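The passage that follows is intended for readers who have already worked through the single-chain material. We present the inputs for a multi-component assembly, then the predicted structure in tokenized form, and finally a short commentary. You are encouraged to pause after the input and sketch how you expect the pieces to fit together before reading on.
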Amino acid sequence: MVKLDFKIGNLHFKNPVLAASGTFGYGSEFDDFIDVSRLGGIIVKGTTLEPREGNPYPRMAETPSGMLNAVGLQNKGIDYFVDNIYPHLQEYNTNVIVNINGSCIDDYVALAERINSLRRIPAIELNISCPNVKMGGMTFGINPASTREVTKAVRSVCKKKLIVKLSPNVTNIIDFARIVEEEGADSVSLINTLVGMSVDIKNMRPSLSTVTGGLSGPAIKPVALRMVWQVAKAVKIPVIGVGGITTADSAIEFFLAGASAIQVGTASFIDPQASLKILEGIENYLDSKGFSDIKDIIGYINRDL
Amino acid sequence: MAKRIESLKIINNQRLNKDLFILELSGKEKLPEMKPGQFAEIKVEDSPETFLRRPFSIHDVNYGENTFKLLIQIAGKGTEALSLLKTGNILNIIYPLGNSFNLPDEKKKVLLVGGGCGVAPLLFLGKQLKANGFNPDILLGFRNSERVIEYDEYLKIGRVFLTTEDGSRGEKGFVTDHTALSSTEYDKVYCCGPELMMRAVGAYCRGKDIECEVSLENLMGCGIGVCLCCVVETVRGNLCTCTEGPVFNINDLKW
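Having made your guess, compare it with the prediction:
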């Protein structure tokens, strides 16, 4: 039996494979395909204070080994979440984490306060890296001062574990990871999508209604891996790797580079069973390599560097 | 009905014309119940530039033989790769997805309107309507006579009216120009085809106060309602075409 569990502070995860926000709905969409409770955790769709309709269609463009999206945080708002979705989430025997988004710091604070009262939500993922909204989102996460300010404000009210999701669209992601660690974040998850674009040459216009969008999928994996490696060396809090993980092999790269856990995102669109296949593959890898605990391979590549 | 992810065997790949082909699939397991309007998401192998699955309407189902068909138009590299598949090849498929056309509750006069590859879900729907005691008329629009497909299959269901843009078969023009529309009073219209055609049919039905359901083909990421990419603007806000659709009553759409 390989030990796969990990902790963020005193919060225990039975394994390090989590479903990434915005790619896993509220879990129930996957009930026909997998036992969601086998995952280490699920991070549910980005939630805002008020309901949001998101950006106009078209919001998606397929790109080589990936896709661009410009959904823009479409969701029904925190009240709807608390009343209609949260009750069902309690059926899952895994950590359910809420990804929160705001246009201003007060929004983030109010959301964190609402979630304090939800007993079965042990952590929030502070999304300061969504590239598809005009206000808030990434504008916080690409500026060191506002990153500090929003993290500090949320930390001061948040009674749950606080994971901050970092943007890759910065000059030096290490600075941002250090700032959120200093302000009391319990963990960082990285990376959110990379800003990109695509042009529809048949119709001679941008493929997305918003022109630019967030690139995800295997195309971004080398960038995500590099950033995870950099950040894991720079901070003491656990690093959750996300970005282009589609197979157990790609997940293992992240552990070897220093991630304590990983999130499976876009891969779930193509294979709704991807997350569990990755979990099983990680177990087999550790077994075949003779490791009894995944902790023994975290940051392993740094031994020889 | 629970959604499934399965590997199914291709038992036939029939080329209809330059752009269109039909994949006939069979599984080891008993097929799930499928409804007209529902679709399947196919994983495309051997096409490095194709990252996402491709959605296709269920074209026809034969529960007795445990087989079903997908009518596919070659529109890019993904569908081109699918067109090259041979009998015996295996496809990974997620199905059945989405809602379905709503059969009329009373014995109403029904018209099916399809254009080009958009006829895909109408054969299955027509057969279901006929099996439920309806006598649907079918109005199909194509670019020219060479594009007309499966005419004889529709004849088994009911009266078939044709239009071609160049007049090489049936009446010349678009489906909304066809004389059948003025000679028969319809209570319900089901439509699938290019969006411009569906909008025109929708506008016609709205003008005549005819109930109309259309099947949309928005670009999809996941097919299961999680990526929120395939949304359509409705009176209830942006809704996923893959889970709240693909079939919508035109009164729900902001057309």
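Commentary: The mean pLDDT of chain B is 95. Residues 110-215 of chain B form a domain with the Rossmann fold fold (CATH 3.40.50.80). How closely did your sketch match?
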